[in-house]
Amino acid sequence: MMVGSAMALVRTLEEDPGHAELLAGLLSVPKTLPSKYLYDEEGSRLFELICDQPEYYVARTEISLLASIAADMAHVLKDRSMLVEFGSGASVKTRLLLDALPLLSAYVPIDISQSALSAAAQAIRGEYPQLNVTPVLGDFTRNLKLPTMIDGRSIAGFFPGSTIGNFSPSAAVDFLRRARRLFGRGSKLVVGADLAKTPRVLVPAYDDAEGVTAAFNKNLLARLNRELGANFDLGSFGHAAIWNAGESRIEMHLVSLVRQRAALLGRTFDFAVGETIHTENSYKYSPAAFAGMAARAGWSVERRWISDNPGFAIFALSA
Ligand code: AVJ
């Protein structure tokens, strides 16, 4: 299944030339690595495979919810002239929204990856020839500028995939506030967010029986070996998905199975048996907690749609 949201997060290691972020993460206690580096070409391929695993309900639940609410969504967004997507788009989700909004005149995908952006823009231009497609290259976790042609009052933003769940709550509020400032008063923002639910469903979704999520997680170390000449012994690390109830998040960790030492960029890192590298957080919200974050960022929830179990929410926010 090509859901496309992984491409929203493609990061090259060259973005941080001194690799300060990687080294700081491995030097901190407990050890961490930034989740954005999970998505090189191989990571994006593995994420698409995750979306096909029976345990990973997230992508398919959002897609069927979007399909079932297309008419409601069209009503909420009917006077919008422009759709701005955080992420390169061209996924099933983008098409579901574009199909529901035949009067839309412009589509603006924003992404950090030039290649993902160009491919997405070209695909959408081919399929929606009446649409003005204006890609913006940029990091949407930082400050962005939109093309000047944009009329602030008729923008709809789109941030699918529960990608917002990979931000800490305070980073999520910052992101929402920045989007609010970028779009201006009267704008709308459609956000997909996965909801908190029993760990009996959550944990297998992030630790599937086929081991695809484990391979996705370990690819982070494989990537450090490939691109930076590190010597992590992939066979000596396991994958763990942990539900942190206090923080309402699923954590992915790489677990050292033995006492070992690894080298990266002229430094060495020691691991005790069972010591982990924390590689990703996926926050799961209640509808009320999500609405609270939106309110702190200057948005109010205009409509909210929630799937039947497993629960996934799509919020239409208005500024
Ligand atoms: C694409 C960021 C939404 O957090 O569910 C899937 C990434 N990580 N399995 C998520 C992911 C492990 C995914 N997002």
Automatic annotation (TrEMBL):
Residues of the Histidine-specific methyltransferase SAM-dependent domain = 20-317
What Gene3D superfamilies does its record include?
Vaccinia Virus protein VP39
Q: Which SUPFAM superfamilies match?
A: S-adenosyl-L-methionine-dependent methyltransferases (SSF53335)
Name-wise, this protein is L-histidine N(Alpha)-methyltransferase
UniProt keyword annotation of Transferase present = yes
Q: Name one GO molecular function term.
A: L-histidine N(alpha)-methyltransferase activity
- Its EC number is 2.1.1.44
Q: Which UniProt keywords apply?
A: Methyltransferase, Transferase
**Source organism (scientific name):** Bradyrhizobium uaiense
Q: Name one Pfam family in it.
A: Methyltransf_33
Q: Please cite one Gene Ontology biological process associated with this protein.
A: methylation
InterPro entries found in the cross-reference section: EgtD (IPR035094), EgtD_Methyltrsf_superfamily (IPR051128), MeTrfase_dom (IPR019257), MeTrfase_EgtD-like (IPR017804), SAM-dependent_MTases_sf (IPR029063)
